[in-house]
Amino acid sequence: MNLSSVFKTVRASTPHLRDxxxxxxxxxxxxxxxxxxxxxxAYCASKGGVISLTRQLAVDYADVPVLVNAVCPGVVRTALTxxxxxxxxxxxxxxxxxxxxxFGRPEDIGGPVAFLASDHARYITGECVxxxxxxxxx
Length: 138
Hints:
Elements: H1 2-17, E1 23-28, H2 41-60, E2 66-73, H3 82-86, H4 88-97, H5 106-117, E3 128-131
Parallel strand pairs: 1-2, 2-3
Helix pairs in contact: 1-2
């Protein structure tokens, strides 16, 4: 689902993007596209596929031009991560691997997304911006 939904959405939307003066495709991958995690093979592999698809689409649509990038969030406080962050063992696992002393909020991802959608990023395509509280650096 993580990869096929991106593929199908892009396939359906690209004909409409050809008429845009500032066409952008912004995919959502994950920090876990770059590293393994116990019991998450499908998730990690599918998010890695989103990154590969992002780079391929950047090449395929450069002549249109459509800029294609991805954002790769780390752990963000949402309803989906609430149980993990409330579980002492799960939280400790993440805190041991995350240099910053806090977990992200949705607006922490919104800033990089807004940048990639803006004219300030008109020379960026095929990139994956990791927004993960330093998880990959740690």
